[in-house]
Automatic annotation (TrEMBL):
InterPro entries: ABC_BtuC-like, ABC_transptr_permease_BtuC. The chain crosses the membrane at residues 12-33, 98-119, 131-149, 156-173, 185-204, 225-247, 272-299, 311-328, 340-359. PANTHER family: ABC TRANSPORTER PERMEASE PROTEIN MJ0876-RELATED, FERRIC ENTEROBACTIN TRANSPORT SYSTEM PERMEASE PROTEIN. GO terms for cellular component: plasma membrane. Belongs to the binding-protein-dependent transport system permease family. FecCD subfamily. The keyword Transport applies. The lineage of its organism: Archaea, Methanobacteriati, Methanobacteriota, Stenosarchaea group, Halobacteria. CDD domains: TM_ABC_iron-siderophores_like (cd06550). GO terms for molecular function: transmembrane transporter activity. It is a multi-pass membrane protein. It is found in: Cell membrane. Keywords: Cell membrane, Membrane, Transmembrane, Transmembrane helix, Transport. This is Vitamin B12 ABC transporter permease BtuC. It comes from Natrialba swarupiae. Gene3D superfamilies: ABC transporter involved in vitamin B12 uptake, BtuC (1.10.3470.10).
């Protein structure tokens, strides 16, 4: 029986690791900043809105964790003495990127954990049913043919493309109220192949926008803003929290659908919810950061080796470990003389480690 103390201990420990990783990441860059100064700048960035002071469209200038709302005055929660240059670098340039990396890493790792349990397949990841391909198709269409896309935002176009693909795959695989997992997997492979052809066609005809489209597909967090954080954060928080509430049902599904039904699990409803929520958090992450591989594949395997297969502890620890992993890899991506897309770094680190697990026979059917 799983001890709640063990889950809490691991969760708190990984949360501390994540916060430490964020501080270290914010301290590194062309301008090195002392970690203590970074912490003070982070705390200074915490602001709270006060009462409406005017009906005009002007805003009170503020460097903080949120986009200012017209008509609201913002008051800092803390007021530490930090040089203005360092405050701006941390709060306006580095911190949005770091927080976004944590959100995306959390989303991808949580979705990957659920997908591996859902399909009972160690090779499953958040993109297995075509969510990433759908997001890529939407994003490339918005970049190469903006006039043909009804959405004004690249993020929104990618987000809609990802969710539309997920539900298309589900609709194809569902027959008579039942959705066989094998059919769902095959439908995902077929849809991914079709979307891959569409993406290739759009890239060929993207002209001067080819570089932007290719960089987006590599996965990147360059020029991240608090607006990106606000886009991804609500979907990720809500989706991951609801997934956590289904951790026990996911454990039962590992026994097989027939046994799960006899144990009181509404199998088809649970499968739909798990698929929908995993697609939602994946879509939110991919929409703001592009296609970043191996986070949702490798991190759940690592945590499964450490904490075991029980999703009641595996899911929250994988989410936090994924957040730390992407913060760390993005720090590496921007550490060199020329920044590289973070998706290259995650693949360069994740693929060899996954092969190592295969050689050690640590990766096996769930």
């Amino acid at each position: 029986m799983l001890s709640p103390t063990r889950t809490i201990t691991w969760t708190v420990g990984l949360l501390v690791v994540l916060l430490g990783m964020m501080v270290v990441s914010a301290a590194l860059g062309p301008v090195r900043i002392e970690p203590v100064t970074v912490v003070k700048a982070m705390l200074n960035a915490l602001v709270i809105p006060t009462d409406v002071i005017t009906q005009s469209a002007t805003t009170v200038p503020v460097v903080g964790w949120q986009v200012p709302v017209p008509g609201l005055e913002y008051v800092p929660v803390f007021s530490f003495d930090v040089p203005d240059t360092h405050q701006t670098i941390v709060a306006s340039i580095r911190l949005p990127r770091i927080v976004l990396a944590a959100i995306v890493g959390c989303a991808l790792a949580a979705a990957g954990t659920v997908m591996q349990g859902f399909f009972r397949n160690p090779l499953a990841d958040p993109s297995i049913i075509g969510v990433s391909s759908g997001a890529a198709a939407g994003a490339v269409a918005a970049i190469a043919f903006p006039a043909l896309v009804p959405f004004g935002s690249l993020h929104l176009s990618a987000f809609v493309g990802a969710l539309a693909t997920a539900f298309l795959v589900y609709a194809i695989a569902t027959d008579g109220g039942r959705t066989p997992v094998a059919t769902l997997l095959l439908a995902g492979v077929a849809v991914q192949a079709f979307l891959g052809a569409m993406i290739s066609y759009m890239l060929v005809h993207s002209g001067d926008d080819l570089r932007q489209a290719v960089i987006w597909m590599m996965g990147h967090l360059h020029n991240s803003t608090w607006g990106d954080v606000q886009f991804a954060l609500p979907f990720t928080i809500v989706g991951v929290l609801i997934l956590l509430s289904y951790a026990r049902d996911l454990n039962v599904l590992l026994l097989g659908e027939e046994d799960a039904h006899h144990l009181g699990v509404d199998v088809e409803r649970t499968k739909l919810l798990l698929l929908a929520l995993s697609s939602l958090v994946t879509a939110a992450g991919v929409a703001v950061a592009g296609v970043i591989g191996f986070v949702g594949l490798v991190v759940p395997h690592i945590m499964r080796l450490i904490v075991g297969p029980d999703h009641r502890i595996l899911l929250p620890t994988s989410a936090l470990a994924g957040a730390s992993f992407l913060v760390a890899t993005d720090t590496i991506a921007r550490a060199g003389p020329a920044e590289v897309p973070v998706g290259i770094v995650t693949a360069a680190l994740g693929a060899p480690f996954f092969l190592f697990l295969l050689v050690r026979r640590e990766v096996h059917a769930i």
